[in-house]
Amino acid sequence: MPEIARILTIMHQPLTNPLVVALAYDGLCTFEFGVAVEIFGLPRPEMGPQWYRFAVASVDDGPLRATGGVKIMTDGGLALLAQAGTIVIPGWRGSEAPVPQALCDALQQAHGRGCRIISICSGVFVLAASGLLNGRKATTHWRYLDALARRYPQTDVVPDVLYLDQGDVLTSAGSAAGIDLCLHLVRRDFGREAANSVARRLVVQPHRDGGQTQHLERPVPRARESQRLGLLFDFLHQQLAHNHTVAALAEKAGMSPRTFLRRFQEATGTTPGRWLLNERLLRARELLETTRFSLEQIAGEVGFGSATTLRYHFQRQFALSPMGYRKRFAAR
Question: Which of 29, 80, 121, 307 could join 76 in a cystine, given CB atoms 3.0 to 4.6 angstroms apart?
Fold first, then answer.
């Protein structure tokens, strides 16, 4: 048995309903649809028999044409949504484009029986039209934030994050953030090793925190500063247990504190404090999965100082206690 399939067999109970159904419609957003296909629909025999099953449901009657002139064939119509454990809405025709009532009804019924629903980018307008975002937090591409808030005031629109996981309803920002959200769901369903395996196939970063900013003022840092920050990141990964001040980090990077904070934000989309917190939590999660260390030991290893502080930040970030996470995901 392949190693990753062995890990999945040991670590996880099969999903109650592994069928993922992606919507297709006339004018389909091909990138977002491709994300769903690549992550949930691509055959992955190395993952074993517990992996997702995949189907495509047509929203519209007749032949479908995607952006770029591609013609789409589907596995069925909206009746497929009644069978799904997870539904993916890969974008929509536009923020002002009407959403068919039949689609809204099918999504409400699926959600009512416990189906998870994911929207990527402008797909959030379908969720909102269905009433499934009333009183909930949601995000979308930064270009659509104002339109979403204006058209659906019942939705708590969260700007400038990559994705939001509300348990049974998940929303993401633009196209690349859809990859992050889908990988997040793989991690939630099957654990870190499975998500990392899929990410390696995609040649993308295995995990980006959903709270990370959508856009950077300077996506590519200056070459000299990029090199210096790269060395600094390596240093911080090796010294997570230590306390680090902005002044000390700026000195190590050869910058003034003000310049350092600006360049760090440009390179990572976040602050040094937020970056360190996220890295410490990721390392804590890894130690929970792969070691028998106590919470006090892990807290000391990653720089939280006490198990109490670790519990607080872990629960806040992952909506799960450290021991609850270990019970669910730890390799036996």
Answer: 80
